[in-house]
Amino acid sequence: QNGLKQCLSEFKQQLPWVERLDVTLGQAVDPISQSASSKDGVDPENDFQREMSFYRQAQAAVLEALPRLRKLQVPTRRPDDYFAEMAKSDQQMQKIRQKLKSKQEAMERSEKAKQLRAMRKYGKKVQTEILQKRQKEKKNMLNAVKKYQKGLSDKLDFLDEEQTSSQGNKKGSGSQQIKKGPNAKRRYKNQKFGFGGKKKRSKWNTKESFNDISSFRPSVAHNKGPGKAGKRGKKALNKRPGKRARQKMKNRAR
User: Fold this and answer.
1) What is the pLDDT of residue 80?
2) How many whole angstroms separate alpha carbon 211 and alpha carbon 189?
3) What is the reported pLDDT for 65?
4) What pLDDT score does 10 carry?
5) CB under 8 Å, gap of 24 or more: what pairs does 15-19 form?
6) Which residues lie in Basic and acidic residues bias regions (predicted)?
7) 62 and 52 in contact (C-beta within 8 Å)?
8) How far is Cα 137 from Cα 158, in angstroms, rounded to an integer?
9) Would you give the DSSP letter of residue 198?
10) Quick check: pTM over 0.85?
């Protein structure tokens, strides 16, 4: 206790009030109730009452100190051209601004990456569903084919369904494309060679075609038509002589 009193005596300095500017007062008078709230009337657990008591005490100190400062001719208002230096320098504020900007850009990049991952996940999900649907359709068709081969079923509806589904897929995928016919090369080959199918033994006669003689023309059969002889005569006139005939013709010329 003696040490505390000694320290307190050392802290005390006999200086004028303008150098100390200490004011110790109670709370200011409430203008509404025209009375000062007592210390015992403040509930320390009530935040509003506690803060209001601090505010009233500071207000009372200001009302007491301002007249004394004016009496001592001490200015209490800040001039219009007053310049107060910031607590932090411009370089420090620039660093803070750059850090905030980089943090915001990192958050934007993270959000974009999150959206891309979600889109990829959705795309993979759709692709998986399509593959599963195709596998299911293929499995059903194979089961139907096996049943048909074993004689358990005599229906070929699965072929119509397969054709309809393939046409639907083509229409869905190429809805924006204009359907075009075969090109000139394809049309020429179709006209020349046909459209595929069985070609072996395609020209063999059958019993019906053998008995059908309605299209038989004796005049033109076996190159005996009227035009055929004329053609043979014309060819005979233009035919080159044999080797012996040419040799005899040379000997006569000599």
Assistant:
1) 82
2) 34
3) 92
4) 76
5) 17/68, 18/69, 18/72, 18/74
6) 102-114
7) no
8) 10
9) -
10) no
Distance CA 140, CA 146 (A): 10
Length of the chain: 254
What ranges in the chain are assigned the alpha helix state H?
2-11, 17-20, 47-71, 90-150, 157-173, 184-193, 207-211, 226-237, 243-253
* Half-sphere exposure of residue 17: CA atoms within 13 angstroms, side-chain side: 11
Neighbours of 49 (CB within 10 A): 13
| Neighbouring residues of 90: CB distance < 8 A, sequence distance ≥ 6 | none
Question: What six digits make up the tokens of 177?
Answer: 């494309």
Q: For 130-174, how does the pLDDT look when each residue is reduced to its tens digit (9 = 90+)?
A: 888 888 888 888 888 887 777 766 666 656 655 555 555 555 555
Enumerate long-range contacts of 74-82, CB under 8 Å, 24 or more apart.
74/18
pLDDT digit string, tens, across residues 91-115: 888 999 999 999 999 999 999 999 8
- The answer to whether residues 50 and 42 touch, using CB atoms and an 8 Å cutoff, is yes
Find all residues with CB under 8 Å of 17, minimum gap 6, and list them.
68
| Phi, psi (degrees; rounded to nearest 5) at 30 | -75, 120
Q: What is the DSSP string of 50-100?
A: HHHHHHHHHHHHHHHHHHHHHHTT---S--TT-----SS-HHHHHHHHHHH
Give the integer Cα–Cα distance in Å for 41 and 49. 9
Could you identify the residue written with the tokens 């599963």?
132
Q: Where are the domains of the chain?
A: 1-34+41-72
pLDDT confidence of residue 127 = 87
d(CA 146, CA 207): 37
What is the model's pLDDT at position 175? Answer: 47
Q: Which amino acid is at 21?
A: L
